[in-house]
Amino acid sequence: MTWDAHANKLTNISADQWRHGLGEPLMSDIDRDRCPDAQALMEHAASRTGLDDFGDPARNLGLGMLTRSITEESWAGMTPRSRVLAIDYLSHLLENRLRMAADRKAHPQIASEAITRPLIVVGPPRSGSTLLHNLLSLDPDSMAPEHWLCSEPSPPPALGKPSPARLESANRQMTTLFGLIPDIFVTHPYMIEEGAGSLAECGSDIMSLVFTSQQLWCFWGGETYRRFLLDADHTAALSFHREFLQAAQWRIPGKHWALKGSDHMLWLRELARLYPDATLVWTHRDLAQQLGSLASVQSILRGLHGRPVTPEARRSQGRKAIDLQHAAIEKAMRSRDAIGEERFVDVSYHDLLADPVASVRRIYEKSGRAVSQEHEQRIRRWLADHHQTKHGVHRHSPEEFGMDGEEINTRFAAYRDRFGFGFGVRPELMSGQ
């Protein structure tokens, strides 16, 4: 079947027709011995919720490509427990979609919410984007999505504070899924103290609800799903991103969004069209550190297959991480040319560590804002209380993933020439740019 034919088939899927913690027994209508296809998963979610509207059918493409990729490239290597966790996770995402669509019907005012002048961190993973996102979120006039809201998005926050049961459900899902790979909490230390109250990402958390996420590729996807992420038009999936933000900000006036998603590099053009007044913040880091950390995190995530990740598997995943990162950066640079330099502000991870407040000020100046005294005080207090190694050191080295500095500098030459970052190479200062 051709790509177009397969895409057309998937976008026309519809279900004929709750909430549960990850790891609990599944309904008998899901076959655990094979990966369910998109149709089966959607029917399963519909039967559990009594709802049948998943929103725009074009948003089903990612689910179809992911289940196809899992079936053909990952399923045979997954343990029975990891298969159950995967099916349950995908089912829960679909149930959330159904409930959000029902909320939107019950409260049509949500669709009138305008998303104006958001700050969106779009830099690659492990480039300081999480740290920067946290600092931007400390502005009293900003909003930032949290994990619990992405895990349990219905009903919208305007209808009441989340109940203890709702927060516990979100925490349970996080800890059960990542229980197979506890090292992930060292690489994401904010999850340890804040749990489901920690900040969420656009890609890993919001866009996962429409199955368009690098995280899902790291979890269970293969080459089929990788090609989908790089080659497909993601306009339909991003329209869900806007709907998510509309529901989350409904009846909360006077705030702007502080968002973060390394996945946005894969669909920068679509993102810029959707949010024409957004300030796009591209974070950068020495590639020896950034790519080494990325390869390490992604190899940890492969542990969700349920088996130990051998040194050989880590090296293999490291090569895949670099391949996808290179393709994403090349695509993002082409998109940036089309969007226009005036929409972007560049932030060095190394500058950010040296003077966090100055880096935030540069972003605010670019977006026509000013950092308030309260915001600055909050940043300084937060930094004093959140040392990066507080819960352990994320140890990794480029060598363990077979990274050769000269080869990477040659491969990433266009990026290095444009921004000054390479393997063991970085500008002395970006703050004056």
From TrEMBL:
<dbReference type="InterPro" id="IPR052736">
    <property type="entry name" value="Stf3_sulfotransferase"/>
</dbReference>
<protein>
    <submittedName>
        <fullName>Sulfotransferase</fullName>
    </submittedName>
</protein>
<dbReference type="Pfam" id="PF13469">
    <property type="entry name" value="Sulfotransfer_3"/>
</dbReference>
<dbReference type="InterPro" id="IPR027417">
    <property type="entry name" value="P-loop_NTPase"/>
</dbReference>
